[in-house]
Design goal:
Blueprint lengths: L3 H86 L11
Length: 100
């Protein structure tokens, strides 16, 4: 039959192995969580870089369109002046009156 000291030794051995397994499992879980956080941080940094690039491109487009729109406004003003000058130099139209 099993005596008390050998049963207690077996219990403490099983208890120690159980604690070792639980500690190993918790360590593995912590490692996976840290790895996941690191990957999410890298993804966040990559997304920030992409968004910053898009913002720079949009600012460049705004700048280009601003100058283009300014040039179009200048062209329209010049065209209206030219149209006014052309109208000044045109001879007056002769209109015929209809007789009944």
């Amino acid at each position: 039959m099993i005596d008390l000291p050998s049963a207690q030794a077996f219990f403490w051995l099983c208890f120690g192995v159980g604690i070792l397994l639980v500690a190993s499992f918790l360590s593995w879980c912590l490692f996976e969580v840290v790895r996941l956080l690191r990957q999410s941080n890298e993804i966040t940094l990559h997304v920030r870089d992409v968004v910053a690039g898009i913002e720079e491109d949009l600012e460049g487009l705004k700048e280009r369109f601003g100058t283009v729109i300014g040039n179009v406004a200048g062209l329209a003003k010049g065209a209206s002046k030219i149209s006014g000058l052309i109208d000044e130099f045109k001879p007056a139209k002769k209109t015929r009156k209809r007789t009944k």
